[in-house]
């Protein structure tokens, strides 16, 4: 195995571990955000009542009434999404980047990175959309529905068909495109800047990923 292949494998492993850690840390907030978004709607009478007055109130009420585990309903689908979405995103990004540079031979690498990142984010998010749909369903129903990951997939498919698994794919892909257009170029930029200090080392990859994920997370909360 050559150093380039090893570097990419280490890179992807670090990215995956960091995104999972970030997901675990912020997931209760994501669950409360989802509950707040679905309440008060007229289409589904189950969620017509305004149960929560805000994020803090939602966190407290869910913990008291359903238990702390309810805040992590859907975490299995979120982790699966990160595994599929993240892997496809980075693979697509670098493939598009290489193709674009070869075709146009331009030195404007920043523009290329942003465009390739946005496309990679949209494509990977569209492919992984079923995991996002299932995550939201599990967050809304909580632990009372007692649905497993595969059970929720099956429930959506049986009741809504294939189209149900790709519900909301347009806005989700657009949001992912914006986040990826911020996150991936920042990762590449940070890694290149640290190269003369840290070299092509794990520390370089780790620090660059940390910076990129921080910026990506900030962008995510702005878009929410």
TrEMBL record:
Listed InterPro entries: MCP_dom_sf, MCP_transmembrane, Mito_Metabolite_Transporter
Keywords: Membrane, Repeat, Transmembrane, Transmembrane helix, Transport
Presence of keyword GTP-binding: no
Main localisation: membrane
TM ranges: 109-128, 205-223
One Gene Ontology term, aspect cellular component: membrane
Subcellular location: Membrane
Membrane topology, from the record: Multi-pass membrane protein
Solcar repeats: 8-99, 108-193
Domain of life the protein comes from: Eukaryota
UniProt record similarity statement: Belongs to the mitochondrial carrier (TC 2.A.29) family.
Protein name, entry field: Uncharacterized protein
Organism field: Odynerus spinipes
């Amino acid at each position: 195995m050559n150093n380039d292949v090893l570097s990419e494998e280490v890179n992807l492993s670090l990215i995956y571990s960091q995104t999972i850690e970030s997901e675990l840390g912020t997931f209760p907030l994501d669950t409360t955000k989802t509950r707040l978004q679905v309440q008060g709607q007229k289409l589904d009478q189950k969620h017509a009542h305004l149960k929560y007055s805000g994020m803090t109130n939602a966190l407290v009420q869910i913990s008291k009434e359903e238990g702390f585990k309810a805040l992590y309903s859907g975490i299995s689908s979120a982790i699966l999404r990160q595994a599929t979405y993240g892997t496809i995103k980075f693979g697509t990004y670098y493939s598009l980047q290489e193709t674009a540079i070869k075709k146009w031979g331009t030195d404007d690498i920043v523009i290329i990175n942003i465009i390739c990142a946005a496309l990679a984010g949209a494509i990977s998010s569209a492919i992984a959309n079923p995991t996002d749909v299932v995550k939201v369903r599990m967050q809304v129903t909580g632990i009372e529905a007692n649905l497993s990951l595969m059970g929720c997939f099956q429930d959506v498919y049986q009741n809504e068909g294939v189209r149900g698994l790709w519900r909301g794919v347009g806005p989700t892909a657009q949001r992912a495109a914006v986040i990826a257009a911020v996150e991936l170029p920042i990762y590449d930029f940070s890694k290149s800047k640290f190269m003369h200090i840290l070299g092509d080392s794990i520390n370089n990859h780790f620090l660059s990923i940390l910076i990129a994920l921080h910026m990506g997370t900030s962008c995510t909360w702005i878009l929410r």
